[in-house]
Amino acid sequence: MLAEREIPDEVADEVLDRFTEVGLINDAAFANAWVESRHRGRGLGKRALAQELRRRGVDDELARDALEELDPEQEEQTARELVRRKLRSMRSLDRQVAMRRLLGMLARKGYPAGLAMTIIKQELDTTHEEFPLLDPSGLEPD
């Protein structure tokens, strides 16, 4: 952006160095805040968060450090809450269709396939009585 405004490189470097010194530019703090905000607000998993940080120019090491701050139990709980919310609108679907859609949702949000499958199976089994999904015949299971 500074180059677009025809600011000489040496001046831009000096300004950016000064901003860093006084704490106005702190990539580590940005990465940590981004991970926290996007995980809580959008329910994104580590893979999606890593991609977002990379697109925003955050150094891989800083991104890794920020992602390590995300508690695996919190990530699992967030994925579980996403599945529970989505299941409420899937009552009329076949179990396999619901599973496929839930897997797609969690994959797009950056959750690993193994974790996603485990959570989905558990939630489908747990919520079966409350939200029975249709069997392939189109009838509710007994």
From TrEMBL:
One GO location term (cellular component): cytoplasm
Biological process per Gene Ontology, one example term: regulation of DNA repair
All residue ranges annotated as the RecX second three-helical domain in the record: 26-67
UniProt key word Ubl conjugation: no
UniProt entry tagged with the keyword Cytoplasm: yes
Top-rank taxon: Bacteria
Residues covered by the RecX third three-helical domain: 75-117
Keyword terms: Cytoplasm
Subcellular location field: Cytoplasm
Pfam families: RecX_HTH2, RecX_HTH3
Family: Belongs to the RecX family.
Name of the molecule in the record: Regulatory protein RecX
Organism of this sequence: Kribbella sp. HUAS MG21
